[in-house]
Specification:
The chain crosses the membrane at residues 12-30. This is Big-1 domain-containing protein. The protein is mainly β. The chain contains three helices and 57 strands. It has four domains: 48-78 and 90-283, no CATH class; 296-394, Immunoglobulin-like (Sandwich), CATH 2.60.40; 409-519, Immunoglobulins (Immunoglobulin-like); 533-707.
Length: 715
């Protein structure tokens, strides 16, 4: 018997094999395509989370730079894929967060008109190192993933082929505000989890310094170390509304141009002629980034009895706990932090970086309080031009009599400026109106100082009295200020070596003292002393005319409230329809005359701080032509003539004291005279003629002893 073959069981086996193959192929395809796509979405979402982290990180750094606080910043370094029962994931994603050296930020071509920060801006530039913070992922699937970077107040993505837009705006420049947020320290972490570091304020930006271009033909520039291109920064600044290449001063955009810098940097060119508010904060990340030490000393406040010093770091911010030493010339008792004496050492700044130093019951006169953060000014040479040292004059009044010679002992001590003038010949000039000796350093390098000592009761000359000499600035009066004994005529002498500058000399004997202002200039170097006839603006505030500081006021006009204006003795007279001088401080030296010539035309003298017009003449020749002198601080018009014609008024308005002794104020032809002082009014032995009235208003006292009102009304 023959049987037929049966192959049905084989068919089942073949089907099973085919089905298994299909499953394997499907799983392989899923593993090869679906799993990577899903993992890519996980990686993409992680990258978006990192972007959010960096937006927060950028905010943390900027906030920490502005306040004395420590804030945490977190970044998710990596991610893990979802678990899969049948399929295989690659290892978890890791990432690296680290600081990287970026370079040097520099603010160049700058100067400042602020007294308290002139030591801060040196060599026309400010420069600081800074870092970036960078995250680099190691994704398994996502291709061409960017590094995420924070630098110079901007967070952005950087791809291999370049920048691809920012995650935040920039705040480096905002109108006229320039805010540097520097990052210091070293930090690096790699892994899957969350990286956290503390952004601590190494130097919080608590002070602002106003800067402008230091020359009329130069722009303030900001050199920014960066991994971005010039075009990238142009786009960033344009998006934030800060780029204006047209010089349009009606908008709030002041970046004139963006240029290529040296190496990896760009240069932001600011509009010329503007004043910018500069703040600098330093944030520490990771290790390093130590608190900066004391960098310079400045005076932030002074009164008739005290001076407040402030210690600042290299970022122009206050330093607490810094050491300061102080003394005073001529010697009197100081007090600070419970300590008293003519010299105080080891004083410590408070939380604001400040130390108030007070004078205890001094006699009337002018005192110079000197302080240093690295020397003892009582025993070491004092140089006010050093940034580590600062001084301030304190004018002490007695019973409202105004400043004068200090007399608490048996003697009257007086610098004999006339004798110094005679001994120095053409190289030395003495001006009694403002008690100043002007020395021509191109002719001599030493000047003979002469002091007279008499008995304070009898007025007789006193022999064999020891006289101590001193100065507030040994960089100008460099030597010879030691001690001498009066001769039989009651005269003590000393030979003083001088270099260009302005200083105060002191002579002290038996508890009494006198001060003398000394100005040393070179007649061949544009110094402006001794009848040069120059007017000049003291742009660098060194008290001496330097090259490029001459100004022309022949039209009677000057308007720059950020600089001091000097019109030297014997300067050419100015005659104009209207005279309007506006400056920070105005000094019109003797034998200068300003005259307005038209009806209704005025003379207006305005100073943000003080006015000194000792020995000068201001007069109007037309009808209804007034003279107005205004100062935020004091006004000194000793030996000055101010005169108006028909119905012309004279007004003097000071936030501080007004001193007009031995002056002539003449508004006798239907004019009114008004003096208004926040402090004292001292107008002794003057001639005041106000036909339409004389009014004195003082926050302190009024001393008009010996003044003649016979030509008009009395106050």
């Amino acid at each position: 018997m023959t049987f037929r073959g049966d192959e049905r069981a084989v068919t089942v086996q073949v089907g099973a094999v085919l089905l298994f193959g299909i499953i394997v192929i499907s799983m392989s395809m899923y593993q090869a395509s679906v799993v990577p796509n899903q993992n890519e979405q996980v990686e993409f979402q992680h990258n978006q989370d990192v972007h959010d982290d960096f937006v927060s990180l950028r905010g943390t750094l900027i906030e920490s730079a502005a306040e004395s606080t420590t804030r945490p910043a977190t970044v998710t370094l990596g991610t893990r894929y979802p678990s899969r029962a049948l399929f295989v994931n690659p290892g978890p994603v890791t990432g690296t967060l680290e600081t990287r050296t970026l370079g040097i930020v520099a603010i160049s071509n700058v100067s400042t008109s602020e007294d308290e920060t002139d030591d801060y801006v040196t060599d026309d530039a400010l420069s600081f190192t800074t870092n970036s913070v960078e995250y680099r992922p190691s994704y398994n699937v996502l291709q061409n993933s960017p590094s995420t970077v924070y630098e110079n107040t901007v967070a952005y993505n950087r791809f291999e082929n370049g920048y691809n837009g920012t995650l935040t705006e920039q705040t480096l420049v905002d109108g006229r505000s320039i805010s540097l947020v520097l990052v210091s320290g070293n930090y690096s972490e790699n892994g899957v989890g969350t990286a956290t570091f503390d952004a601590r304020a190494v130097s919080p930006a608590l002070r602002t310094v106003s800067v402008t271009n230091n020359s009329s033909d130069r722009n303030v520039t900001i050199t920014v170390p960066t991994k971005l291109s010039t075009a990238d920064w142009e786009s960033i600044l344009d998006e934030s509304g800060e780029l204006d290449g047209s010089g349009d001063d009606s908008n709030d955009a002041y970046v004139h141009d963006v240029r290529n810098g040296t190496g990896d940097s760009v240069v932001l060119v600011m509009e010329r002629g503007e004043t910018y508010n500069l703040q600098i904060g330093n944030v520490g990340v990771g290790s390093g980034g130590n608190t900066p030490s004391a960098h310079y000393l400045t005076v932030v406040d002074s009164s008739s009895s005290s001076v407040t010093f402030e210690v600042r770091d290299q970022y122009n911010n206050p330093v607490s706990g810094a050491t300061l030493n102080a003394t005073v010339l001529p010697a009197t008792t100081l007090s600070a932090q419970g300590e008293t004496g003519s010299a105080l050492t080891g004083l410590r700044t408070d939380a604001r970086g400040q130390i108030p130093v007070s004078l205890d019951s001094p006699t009337a006169g002018t005192y110079t309080v000197q302080a240093s953060i690295d020397r003892n000014p009582a025993t070491d040479p004092f140089d006010a031009s050093r940034r580590q040292e600062a001084n301030a004059d304190v004018v002490v009044n007695s019973a409202g009599t105004g400043p004068g010679t200090g007399t608490s002992g048996p003697y009257d001590v007086t610098w004999d400026g006339g004798a110094m003038d005679a001994a120095g010949g053409s190289a030395v000039d003495y001006y009694s109106a403002n008690d100043t000796v002007v020395v021509d350093s191109s002719s001599i390098s030493q000047v003979d100082g002469v002091v007279d000592v008499v008995d304070s009761d009898s007025g007789d000359q006193v022999a064999n009295v020891s006289v101590d000499f001193a100065t507030n600035d040994s960089s100008v009066l460099t030597s010879g200020l030691d001690t001498d004994v009066t001769d039989g005529s009651g005269v003590a002498t000393t030979t003083i070596s001088v270099v260009d500058g302005v200083a105060t000399a002191y002579a002290t004997a038996g508890g009494s003292f006198d001060t003398l202002h000394v100005k040393v200039v070179s007649a061949t170097g544009g110094g402006g002393g001794g009848g040069s006839g120059d007017a000049w603006q003291d742009t660098n505030e060194n008290g001496v005319q330097d090259a490029g500081e001459a100004v022309d006021i022949s039209d009677g006009q000057f308007d720059n409230s950020s600089v001091d204006l000097y019109v030297e003795q014997d300067a050419s007279d100015v005659t104009a329809d209207t005279i309007n001088l506006n400056a920070k401080n105005i000094i019109l030296e003797p034998n200068f005359t300003a005259q307005s010539s038209g009806n209704g035309d005025k003379i207006v003298i305005t100073a943000a701080d003080s006015v000194v017009i000792d020995g000068a003449t201001l007069e109007t020749s037309g009808s209804n032509a007034d003279v107005s002198i205004t100062a935020g601080g004091s006004i000194s018009a000793i030996g000055t003539t101010v005169r108006t014609q028909n119905q012309g008024d004279i007004s003097v308005d000071a936030g501080g004291n007004i001193t007009a002794s031995q002056s002539t104020l003449d508004a006798s032809n239907k004019g009114e005279i008004t003096l208004d002082a926040g402090g004292n009014i001292v107008i002794r032995n003057a001639v005041v003629s106000g036909d339409d009235g004389v009014t004195y208003t003082a926050g302190g006292t009024v001393d008009d002893s010996g003044t003649d009102y016979s030509g008009g009304q009395s106050p």
